[in-house]
# Entry
Amino acid sequence: MNVLLTIILTVQMLSALSMIGLILVQHGKGADMGAAFGSGGSGSLFGASGSANFLSRTTAVLATVFFVCTLALAYFGNLRPATSGSVLEGAAVVAPVAVEAASAPASIASGVSQIPVK
# Structure
């Protein structure tokens, strides 16, 4: 189960980092308007419309992967093992250990009386 959670978390992190990179590379809608009036060049590697389609589709796929990973992590995070009984019954099992530990300071207390006091 832990291996599955680690894989899902790794895929989620990689998709998030890839989305951040792709979003930063994309041109905004205002950049095309500025290029139309001659304030900048609009040439790119994929062409004017090809880059927007490729990058926006890739971003949409990565966003879907991120969303599915988030839902999977939320689902697996809420799974709890089926236990019969309450939390108080679990505390009653731990309590005898605490009683044995409480008897240990009694033997130490006899040694405390040997310490000289001013």
Observations:
- The chain has a mean pLDDT of 75.
- The two ends are 61 Å apart (CA to CA).
- Residues 2-106 form one domain.
- The helical segments are 2-25, 29-36, 50-78, 87-112.
